Amino acid sequence: MSRTAVFFHAHPDDEALLTAGTMAMLAAEGHRVVLVVATAGERGLADLPHGDELGQARMKELHRSAETLGCARVVLLGYGDSGLAIDGGVAEDRPDNAFIDADTEEAAQRLAAILKEETADLLTIYDPAGGYGHPDHVQVYRVGSRAAEIAGTPIVLEATVNRDPLLKGVRLAARFYPKIDVRSFESAYSPNHVITHRVNVRKYARAKRASMAAHASQTTGGDGDRTLGAMLKIPFWAYRLIFGTEWYVRRDLPPGTRVRHPFH
């Protein structure tokens, strides 16, 4: 039976990093996949200047990514990218329509209207900390949680990363790269014991990699190669192994639950 899954993200490229494998898998299985993005990511680091030029470029990249993954529909909510302060908090120079400043109820009603229109069976958001703490990611959690309540969407999954192996890897890397801030990862994403869904997406690794590659503007910027660019340099055999699992938390399931498919 075909179902509909709505993936709600803060910026273009977030879908590639956290949920692309799952999206490609569901589309391949015949389900309807809808991608909703809160902002155009116009304040992200890139070689292009901030503003309309970068936002337009990133939206084109988003549509290329969505096509690669088999999405049936892409929706931009049209909020401004809130940006990120140097200390990781909310940027003071954010635009007037910044997503972080949007009325949660009003934004949730807008997303709920899409969920109702699509008769969505599933909605993905982020964990309460917004993964690594970006203000727009935290707002995705707030808005998405409320929208699911309004629309009566039965399955809500928090897209995340398993913090335990991530932290081990960061601590190892810090031995060789002392500038890495290990403490910032100690509260990022979700610990293994709260994760309910471990989705094997190795079969869709090429689609996930193509989704990442679609976001070319985000591979460089700032001090040079960024996380996305570094990921794309990993040999495919290793990429498939490292990025072959996507993690989610479903709060209405008992602790310790282990599920391998989003609709289970």
Percentage of β-strand residues: 15-25%
CATH topology name, in short, is Rossmann fold
Helix content: 25-40%
Which regions have little confidence, pLDDT < 50, spanning 5+ residues? none
According to DSSP, the number of beta strands is 9
Descriptive overview:
The chain is an alpha/beta fold. The mean pLDDT is 91. It contains nine helices and nine strands. The protein has one domain (4-164, 192-249): Rossmann fold. Helix content is 38%, strand content 17%.
Give short descriptive properties of this protein.
264 residues, Rossmann fold, 38% helix, alpha/beta, two-stranded antiparallel sheet
Summarize the structure.
Helix content is 38%, strand content 17%. With 264 residues, it is an alpha/beta fold. The strands form 2 sheets. Strands 3-2-1-4-5-9-6 form a 7-stranded mixed β-sheet, sandwiched between helices. Strands 7-8 form a two-stranded antiparallel sheet.
Topology summary:
Blueprint: E1 4-9, H1 14-18, H2 20-28, E2 32-39, H3 52-69, E3 73-79, H4 104-118, E4 122-126, H5 135-151, E5 155-160, H6 163-176, E6 197-200, H7 205-214, E7 220-221, E8 224-225, H8 227-232, H9 236-242, E9 245-249
Parallel strand pairs: 1-2, 1-4, 2-3, 4-5
Antiparallel strand pairs: 5-9, 6-9, 7-8
